Amino acid sequence: MNRFEPPRPTAQPAEAPDAAPHLVTPRHEPHPAAAKAAPQRVPAAPAAAGEVDRLVGGWHHDPHAVLGAHPVPGGIAVRALRPLAEQVVVETPQGRYRMTHQQDGLFTALLPPGGAAPHRLRVTYEGAEHLQDDGYRFLPTLTAEDLHLIAEGRHEQLWRALGSQVRTVDGVTGTGFAVWAPNASGVRVVGDFNGWNGLAHPMRSLGSSGVWELFVPGIGDGTHYKYEIATRDGRTLQKADPLARATETPPATASVVHTSTHAWHDQDWLDRRAERTAHDAPMSVYEVHLASWRPGLTYRELAVQLPPYVAGLGFTHVELMPIMEHPFGGSWGYQVTGFYAPTSRLGTPDDFKHLVDALHRHGIAVIVDWVPAHFPKDDFALARFDGEPLYEPADPQRAEHPDWGTLEFDYGRTEVRNFLVANAVFWAEEYHIDGLRVDAVASMLYLDYSREHGDWSPNEHGGRENWDAVRFLQEMNAVVYRRCPGVVTVAEESTAWSGVTRPTGEGGLGFGLKWNMGWMHDSLEYIQHEPVHRKYHHDEMTFSMVYAYSENYLLPISHDEVVHGKRSLVSKMPGDWWQQRANTRAYLGFMWAHPGKQLLFMGQEFAQGAEWDHETGPQWWVLDEDWPAAGDHRGIRDLVRELNRRYADSPALWQRDTDHTAFTWLDNNAAEDNLFSFVRYDRAGLPLVSVSNFSPVVRENYRIGLPRIGGDTRWLEVLNTDDPGYGGSGVGNPDPVKADPTPWNNQPTSTELTLPPLATIWLAPA
């Protein structure tokens, strides 16, 4: 994966920093009793000088203790920060009171006893009046239960507490902001609603939770904002919201307040999903990079084209490369800065929901790539979020990811683990995602991953295992499976770590499936050899069955295998163009019959010749009628469609994927013939036989052992990758073949077949 992301300057808002800092005008009428009365002059209620300095400097931990209305001897003190205001008047049911400017934009007034609640502020900037609710008269928008769960790291719907939420509090509508920044000396909200000047909007610290909170009346959806953080060493940072639901389109980096209005239409889908598991159901995955599948299409335009295309080819799932917001398109989404926001490059969050809804209506499940292994160092995002290591470990050796120039998460920190676990739940619950493919699991599990001796520190037992990461993955899987029935988690894990798909209650990591990277590497290595040399590499195709039932596997031919010098699938094949296509067809037939689910990256379904380019996407033009080899490419696509159809109609290929008794080699030692044959069984004991001939010669009268099904059993060739409709030579067994009582391949019966060159055939009882 291309995870390198060069440093980029943080895009700054266009608003002038000295603009009037609070121009939002809520839609409220003046208090009737005070509507026509001239403001009364009342005494000032000055704040202590030190308090003002802390407020103006941005390092006050409890601005609500100074601002707003507070009983004091002699009346009610009302204070408001309105920098650049010419005049501020307090309006209450009892009257209107002109405030006195103390210093640096702080206005104060001492109102008569009982004269402040509820109050609003009429603020004059450059001769124009603005009526505003005072955000400092409201209680915190987080509950005690929220703070308790956050402290314990058990807030499984964290996004409902932190981030920006449009709320109505005491009849006043606005946006509540909450952010975890325990090392900050002060936090303020800045945005387009205050001219990106946070003086008027300092947040309060909610005790030992590390959470800072503020309710800002009168602002709502579409508001652009960031957090301005005062660090303990005297710096000021502007950071995007880690839990923002929406973002500006890169290279702009502000967060955006968002409330969903999407009405889902997939309840029947969710109900059916909850009744099945991935292990004993068909699962054929089409991997997609949304931004380049059809370059230029938005989420809503993709919702028109992608679902019928995927469904028409018979795939059961799509897997979307990361759709979370990321600043650098060349990272393909694997360097995430907005973990709770779908990328705005293709539309709004509701537009993405519309796409998921459309896929569900076409019977397609949606898996998304999820990247909890690392995050980029961009200064507007998570890196040293409050001026110090927070989401990353404090130990630089553990924080730095050596491969991708990024930072790793601190899985041992309660709040960080909660941030990630809740994020997994978020995509399943808020976006109805059906599965999470977890990226780079191996890099999380090992402390010495891609590190030289001396560049890492062992765990408390002296080993290389990252037990904090193990516990995080176990918790994530347990929570997702408990909360989201029918959702599957898939690990991209490339080592021999034991128990990746074992339940957490048995000490495993708890994933539903694991990418079979060993099968992928070995089979691609085999198929790239010239047929004359394949007999020396025969075990590269058979070795996967030694461990095929040690985990629940998915066979991936992913984007990683067809990019950056690795060549496309068809271009890996030896020989001339016909042989390349024949090898590809035979390989896909072998793959679809092999135990495990399967995944194919976009463009490979029609054998495009070029590597994948994230700027241009698949070579759709090779399917055009005026392209000389268009029929060749359409033939491969027709084969993929037929593979998916036959696969779905053949329970033997998916019903017992985790049962080692459901697979039997017929002949795994025919190295001289470049031939592999095996049988799969469904729950009823009905078989399907697969025979792959990876040599370029036709094999006449080739005897293959067959299981006994009944008396006079006939077998039908239900798939032949050498069919002329797919671009093949048409060699095969068009008529049913009869099993005779000759024992062969450790089977009680057998038959003689004609095996086409560079082809896979499937046989089923007629």
Please describe the topology of this protein.
Elements lengths: L39 E2 L7 H9 L10 E5 L2 E7 L5 E6 L2 E4 L1 E4 L2 E6 L8 E6 L2 E6 L10 H9 L10 E7 L2 E9 L5 E6 L12 E2 L5 E7 L6 E7 L5 E4 L6 E2 L7 E2 L10 H7 L10 E5 L1 H4 L5 H14 L4 E4 L3 E2 L12 E5 L6 H13 L3 E6 L25 H4 E2 L4 E2 L6 H17 L4 E4 L2 H5 L21 H17 L4 E4 L21 E3 L1 H11 L3 H4 L4 H4 L1 H4 L5 E5 L11 H4 L4 H17 L3 E5 L28 H19 L14 E5 L7 E7 L5 E7 L5 E8 L7 E7 L16 E2 L10 E7 L3 E7 L1
Parallel strand pairs: 1-5, 19-20, 19-30, 20-23, 23-26, 26-27, 27-28, 28-29, 29-30
Antiparallel strand pairs: 2-3, 3-7, 4-5, 4-8, 6-7, 8-9, 10-11, 11-14, 12-15, 13-14, 15-16, 15-18, 17-18, 21-22, 24-25, 31-32, 32-33, 33-38, 34-37, 35-36, 35-38
Helix pairs in contact: 5-6, 8-10, 16-17
